[in-house]
Design a protein that fits this description.
This is Nucleotidase. With 196 residues, this protein is of the alpha/beta class. The chain folds into 2 domains: 134 residues, HAD superfamily/HAD-like (Rossmann fold); 48 residues, no CATH class. The chain is built from 9 helices and 6 strands, in the order βααααβαβαβαββαα. A 6-stranded parallel sheet has the order 3-2-1-4-5-6, with helices on both faces.
Length: 196
């Protein structure tokens, strides 16, 4: 890694780089439901779909590849990430399991999404990975992760607004509604570090 990277940005994949609603049609199809994305008011979809955690894990085990391969890009995430690539170190830290590395990298290639590191940790606890990579900023959609990362690391976290992460936020966690807003906030919060 060249030492000229300005920020090390930790980036969640699902619900952040991919559209947060992409899982709903697949789960509806599998479980015979007709829920809308707006109905998913908690992160644990097992509760939303009234199935057990074990049933959800089994479903994800069987459908993860299809889900990850077919997910659409979240807004202009690909454009913003391409813009950042030459200036910042992009480290994707995801709860996906490492066995999904191939489908993840193929998806990145298909949408021309650049990366410096892809860390598939197989867990929602991203703190040790964020520490390992020395992230200066994190992009996330899961409320619990955003709160933990901002408090433990004293870094800014951008939390993508979803039906399942509504709560009051501490000062270092910023609710964002689009990738355009993310790009703008990075320039506002790190002005000296983002000017060319």
């Amino acid at each position: 890694m060249k030492p000229d990277k300005i920020l090390t940005i930790g980036i969640d994949i699902d619900g952040t780089v991919t559209s947060p609603s992409s899982i709903v049609p697949l789960m509806n199809e599998s479980f015979g439901r007709d829920l809308r994305y707006e109905d998913c008011v908690e992160y644990n979809l097992a509760n939303v779909y009234q199935i057990t955690d074990a049933e959800f894990e089994m479903w994800l085990d069987q459908n993860g590849e299809r889900l990850y391969d077919g997910a659409p890009v979240h807004g202009i995430a690909d454009q913003v990430l391409r813009d950042w690539f030459t200036s910042h170190k992009l480290v994707y830290i995801s709860a996906r399991e490492d066995r999904h590395r191939d489908v993840t990298l193929q998806w990145f290639a298909r949408y021309n999404i650049p990366h410096h590191e892809v860390d598939l940790i197989g867990s929602h606890d991203k703190l040790s990975a964020a520490r390992k990579w020395g992230v200066d900023l994190f992009l996330e959609d899961r409320l619990e992760n955003a709160l933990q990362l901002s408090e433990a690391l004293q870094i800014h976290v951008f939390l993508f607004d979803t039906p399942y992460n509504q709560a009051s936020l501490p000062p270092l966690v910023h609710r964002v509604t689009s990738w355009e807003e993310v790009a703008q906030k990075v320039n506002e919060l790190f002005p000296a570090k983002t000017s060319v």
